[in-house]
Amino acid sequence: MFFSLKSRLIAFIVVLFVLCFGTLSFLLFKESRTVIRSYIESSALEKMEEYGSYVDMVQIQIYDVASLVFNSDTAKNWDNAISDPNLPEGETMLVNLGMSRFLTQATNSYTSISDVSIYRRNGLRIGSENQVTTDPLFLQESWYKSFFISGNHWLSAHTDQHENIRDHGNPVISLLMPIGTFHYATAQNVMKINVNESYFLEPLNRIHLAESSTIFLLGEQGSPILSQQANQLGAEALAEIDQIRNNSLKSGVVYLNNDEGQRDILVYKKLGRTGWMLAGLAPEKELYSSLHKLQSTILVVTIVLILVSLFAAAWLSYGVTKPLTRLVLAMRQVQRGAFDQAESLLPPDKNVKSEVSYVISTFRYMISRLRQHIQNEFELKLLRQQAEYKALLMQINPHFMFNTLELVSSLAMQRRTDDTVRVIEDLGKMMRFSMNTSDDRVQLAEELAYIRHYISILQTRFGHKLDITLTQEGRLNSLVIIKFILQPLIENAVKYSFQHQTAAEVHIRISRRNNHLHFNISDNGPGIPAEIIQKIHDPVETSQLEPLLRSQSWHIGLGNVVARCRLHYGSLFNIQIENGEHNGTSIELILPAQEEYDVQRIDRR
Question: Where does the HAMP domain start and stop, copy by copy (predicted)?
Fold first, then answer.
């Protein structure tokens, strides 16, 4: 009985399925474990890097406020006046109120700062919102004593009893700085800058390694900065963190054995500005729980498939040749990519009553899954390109903001009120336009309005030294383009036109010719080096986003625009760059003329 073809086929199929699916299950579990581990580690470190940049930004604002108050003439004059024992009481109160108003202005200048106060050794406290009190109780506060003893500048999350107007009694993180001297031991005044804990805690709570994991923000001594309990990490993790703080590595992943004999994953990231550190602990088994479920599912599927194969082998002699022939034809269609034709060639399952039915059913399922995988791969590629496009888009805003804020500061110092108001109005309208990142395409009219505001700011800044014109040709009202493709080019043209001369000429011409939209920006600058022009024309060079996003070179604005246009329009985009015989550069962008009802596509290659 065993030597019959039917029995041997059944035995062979059973052994084959057990070996194949068993090996597949083992390899899939092993490789998936490696991939998931690598993804978890890189993803956690990437999220910590983003949060570290956010913490650096908040700390910069805190240090800016401290520097503003420490170096201000108002603080120096107040310190000199309040130190005069012969100053009348009324004038003393006026001086204190003036200092309070200055602190209010400093606080309102930064969104992350909740309050700024000055504590004097004689029991005087001056805060924002006209807070002037004499209450020596704060002299007994532990943070106050610790500052003069050890110079501890940072205070972890705490509720400040003396400053509850702005933070409403919520926990705050504080920076302590001396006033009038650099040494904390000899200081008569201590400046305390409060930041609401939520500025640090809310974005931190959005970082998760696993469902039961927590990311801790630790100070220089290893204690939590926020309202978190360090003992949740466990003794093993705390001991490892102490060793990590003393080594030179900035970030990494460590695997530890917990008290239950299982492994935990410790992910850490050091923040360089203040010596703070991010540390997160997650059970390894929780990270791989979905993988274990997949392994069980594979086992169940394997058993089911073995049962189906046994049933199929029992009907070996029925209808083998015809279904296999149609199956071969369907496979050839799959090789050509014609999935619909392949499915139409397969015989219906109900007409196939042999072991071939399993092969056909599995092949049909494979076609469906293959089509789904191709669609998923396309969608992933589309999302990846959209993310790259957003990264390039957000690269422009900070550079422009810094230049414009410097201009506003200069105009204010020159008391040019009308020009200051006009620049602020133009900047406000531009920022309202630029802050809308929900769509990467806008009407051409909106982009041109944005450019006119930008030109107005440039003309205010350079005056008669800048000759800049904007001309339009053709029917442009109904066209749409991607955002921010003109401003970086105009900025480069103005900047390098002033590089070796006192006057700049920049001419912008926008025209529609047949089905193409032409943007031409010409200047009287020194011209673009030939090697840079070659790189700009090379699609491979401008598609390398990592070096482009980190680049600080002079052609970053042009490279940014070209990269975004190639990401969005693909082969429909073209650029022409020409240098004059003696000086000057002409850059022409050629885009497809798309109406408002056109379907948006990121990848058209």
Answer: 318-375
